[in-house]
Design goal:
Strand order of the largest sheet of chain B: 2-1-3-4-5-11-10
Largest interface: A-B, 66 and 64 residues
Oligomer: heterodimer
CATH topology of the largest domain in chain B: Rossmann fold
Order of helices and strands of chain A: HEHEHEHHEEHEHEEHEHEHEHHHEHEEEE
Largest sheet of chain A: 8 strands, mixed
Radius of gyration of chain B: 22 Å
CATH superfamily of the largest domain in chain B: Response regulator
CATH class of the largest domain in chain B: Alpha Beta
Number of domains of chain B: 2
Structural class of chain A: alpha/beta
CATH topology of the largest domain in chain A: Rossmann fold
Order of helices and strands of chain B: HEHEHEHEEHEHHEHEHEHHEEEH
Number of helices of chain A: 14
Shape of chain A: globular
Strand content of chain A: 15-25%
Strand content of chain B: 5-15%
């Protein structure tokens, strides 16, 4: 297990390629560094996403440090492995939080880890940003800490796909899920929306991430005969299941959930077997392709959907802290940082794009207001710290690309928006 | 590095409603592995209900000992009133129990975008919608058990519930009940005892000879509401506290507030406390606020909804009794599953520690005060149910 503050070996390539990023072999954290903790999956079922998400964090940090850091202090990333496992990931997160002076934490991909570290986050007076598509959804009223969910609500993603599938005439659906809260919640909300439109919803099937065969799942699906199946799993589980699906002659129409708009999925299945398969994910806004180009040029990695949100987590945090420092001379408390996060994500102020962080920091230092236009678009945060921009995109696999074919924005005719 | 596996087999096959024959598939990995601990991270919290948690673990252990293949695991349906507010933790609890058991589950609640919740026939329409859902579950011929939170306890709702029991399998009711049906258990707060507990909390600050106004229903048809209020009245009276006739809510904030102001203004009584028995306890706080008697009248209320919480944060509540919906969701999936797997008798025996009577499973309450509020919020957050 990597020790806190040391980067897992698997991430070394991105560090070498990132201009201006902190070298992994640096013996110690710079004494004046502002530290950010993160726990990401570098092994286990979600391992395919860990490196590219860490790369997004390091790209954001490199950009901030290249601009002189925060009031002259560099950002520093302390990162560890979640192992795609709630128990081990939580233990590593505790090690990071309790063993260091880390004011900020970003992640995790596993919602249960985020739940279980809430008391530690409060105890240390930290700010926790949750950029994962699978981000935990909770609201702790403590003023000792602050939490922000930057990705769209699971309800809206589920609703977007339900709307699209209903519009295509599908009359009987089934959801196949990983055993985690995000997938289970997606299945419930998807079922609610599509059921209210008259479609039959079959019971949610759970898959074992350890499985090497999904024969039982397919036998069940063939017998129940849904018109379509929604796959809500990690890319590695989906890859195994979809290979078996293709080998069986693609017997059922399959749609893919938000976490499967990921190049890692395509890399792990034979070329062409997913051609034409559709899915849902977050609408990343008009500048997502620019970010993709920027990301690839700086890192040689292809960004996953989550990369946009992880980069934006660093950018928003930096701008919010910078505004606090400009106004009060010190890093703001969690309660105050909430106000600064709302400020830098509001529509007032000079627009600062994801590749203009240096300009943004200069404007804030000069006492001006900024409005961040991120890799995943603009952000409108509510008083609870949740992103409220929830439009979904429907995409289709074409060659090695995920091509957007439609947008879906749910409204009060689809779901209870007051609780979405 | 090998991932630590804590989840058992999930690939499952369903059998028809009412059928006892297994499916045709073969499990892909051996079943009967170790028992998964129930929410291990939160176990240190004083808010974990030990009796409920232990009972759940005992039931799961007994089920695991059966070594069911995936094809033998009975699918369970969960039909709620809504997915939100009070029921949000129920959904999470049900989903997690489904994962723990490795059984397929559908969690549903009617949604009608055109529904008018204030219409006189709103409840009837909502109940009718639930009955349509149950009828479709019967037609699907997939499910072997159901957890159900009914809107109504009469007429078609009884007939429809019984049809499910006859065709598919056991039903448990959650929070609300259809007592005159074939349901196996009600999983809820034991209301009389909850009223007793709330009153005992109030007695910490109300002395014999002083008066307490009880904000509780007089609607005889609402049995659980009557029982809860009676538990409080009996306890307060036994302690020598004066309890004038209760004020019955009509669930319209301004009207209820005015009724309470009128009652509290009666010069015949020296009111120093209020026992507000339902989730609309904010009406009590609003009345006390309007009278300017925040520190003179202590309130114990029920349920930490947004309106109650806002008054709690302003110091109007001495205590708020909170229910354990998360465990209602867990038991809602587990109990009909257990009846399928273990049978009626063994399930009843294992449920004994949390049975109020032969068909009532008590999930209990906690009383939240300023002293334990932060700890309670941490408990909810660590469990992932702090909405």
């Amino acid at each position: 297990m990597p020790s806190p503050g040391r980067t897992p070996q698997a991430t070394l390539p991105c560090l070498i390629l990132l201009a201006g990023c902190i070298a992994s072999d640096q013996p110690a954290t710079p004494p004046n560094a502002i530290r950010i903790g993160a726990v990401l999956p570098f092994s286990g079922a979600r391992a395919a996403s860990g490196v590219v998400l860490e790369t997004a964090l390091r790209l954001g940090i490199a950009d901030v440090n290249a601009a002189g850091g925060l009031a002259g202090r560099p950002l520093w990333l302390d990162i560890d492995d979640s192992h795609s496992d709630d128990v081990r990931g939580t233990a590593n997160a505790f090690d990071l939080i309790d063993g260091n002076t880390i004011p900020f934490f970003i992640g995790t991909e596993e919602p249960k880890i985020a739940y279980q570290i809430t008391s530690a986050i409060k105890r240390h007076g930290m700010v926790h940003l949750m950029p994962a598509l699978t981000a935990a959804q909770f609201h702790d009223p403590s003023a000792a800490a602050a939490w922000f969910r930057l990705s769209p609500s699971v309800s809206f993603m589920a609703c977007a796909l339900a709307r699209h599938m209903f519009a295509t005439g599908i009359a009987k659906t089934e959801v196949v899920v990983d055993p985690d809260d995000y997938s289970g919640n997606f299945a419930v909300k998807f079922g609610a929306v599509i059921r209210s439109k008259g479609t039959t919803v079959l019971p949610t099937l759970l898959v074992d991430p350890r499985s090497s065969s999904y024969a039982d799942t397919f036998d069940t699906l063939v017998r129940l005969a849904p018109d379509a199946v929604v796959l809500m799993t990690s890319p590695s589980v989906a890859a195994g299941l979809l290979q078996e699906w293709a080998a069986r002659g693609r017997p059922i129409k399959i749609f893919l959930g938000p976490t499967l708009k990921d190049a890692a999925l395509l890399r792990n299945v034979p070329a062409g077997i997913l051609e034409g398969v559709m899915g849902v994910s977050a609408d990343l806004g008009e500048r997502s392709e620019e970010f993709r180009t920027y990301f690839e040029a700086r890192t040689t990695f292809v960004p996953a959907t989550g990369s946009h949100y992880y980069f934006d987590a660093v950018a928003l945090l930096t701008l919010a802290v910078a505004e606090g420092i400009a106004q009060n001379g010190t890093i703001p408390t969690p309660a105050l940082l909430k106000e600064h996060m709302l400020n830098v994500s509001s529509a007032t102020g000079t627009v600062v794009a994801f590749d203009q962080l240096a300009q943004g920091l200069a404007l804030l230092a000069a006492g001006q207001k900024v409005s961040y236009s991120g890799a995943a678009g603009s952000y409108v945060l509510n008083a609870l710290g949740d992103s409220t921009l929830n439009r979904g995109t429907i995409w289709q696999i074409s060659g090695s690309d995920f091509v957007t074919v439609d947008y879906e924005q749910c409204d009060s005719t689809d779901m209870d928006l007051t609780n979405g | 590095m090998r991932r630590q596996v804590i989840v058992p087999l999930f690939v499952v096959v369903m059998v028809g409603c009412g059928s006892s024959s297994p499916g045709t598939s073969t499990p892909i990995v051996p079943d009967g592995g170790g028992i998964i601990p129930n929410d291990a991270a939160a176990l240190a919290s004083p808010f974990v209900p030990a009796a409920v948690d232990n009972t759940i673990n005992q039931l799961v252990a007994a089920i695991e000992a059966k070594g069911l293949s995936s094809s033998q695991k009975p699918p369970i349906a969960v039909l709620l009133k809504t997915f939100y507010d009070f029921f949000a933790p129920v959904v999470i609890g049900a989903n997690r129990m489904s994962t723990r058991l490795g059984t397929p589950t559908v969690v549903e609640a009617p949604f009608d975008p055109n529904a008018d919740a204030t219409a006189p026939d709103a409840l009837d329409k909502a109940a009718a919608a639930q009955n349509v859902y149950i009828s479709s579950l019967i037609t699907d011929t997939l499910y072997k058990g159901m957890a159900y939170s009914p809107y109504e306890a009469t007429g078609d709702s009884i007939t429809t519930l019984d049809a499910f029991v006859n065709s598919c399998g056991p039903v448990v009711t959650i929070d609300s009940d259809i007592a005159d049906s074939k349901r196996s258990y009600l999983i809820a707060t034991a209301n009389y005892q909850a009223g007793v507990t709330a009153a005992k909390k109030l007695l910490e600050v109300v002395k014999p000879g002083e008066a307490v106004l009880v904000f509780g229903t007089t609607l005889a048809a609402w049995v659980s509401g009557i029982e809860r209020a009676q538990g409080a009245i009996d306890t307060l009276t036994a302690a020598g506290v004066i309890v004038p006739p209760k004020v019955s809510p009509i669930w319209v904030l301004e009207t209820d507030k005015q009724s309470l102001i009128t009652a509290l203004s009666d010069p015949a009584y020296n009111f120093t406390g209020m026992a507000c028995m339902y989730s609309n306890a904010d009406s009590c706080a609003a009345a006390v606020e309007a009278l300017g008697k925040k520190d003179l009248i202590k309130i114990v209320g029920f349920d930490m909804g947004a309106a109650n919480k806002a008054y709690f944060d302003k110091g109007y509540f001495y205590g708020i009794a909170v229910q354990r919906q998360y465990y209602m969701g867990q038991l809602g999936v587990l109990v009909p599953y257990a009846i399928n797997v273990l049978g009626v008798a063994q399930t009843a025996a294992l449920l004994q520690p949390i049975l109020v009577n032969a068909s009532f499973i008590d999930t209990g309450i906690d009383i939240i005060t300023v002293d334990n509020y932060a700890a309670y919020m941490s408990y909810l957050s660590e469990l992932g149910i702090n909405a």
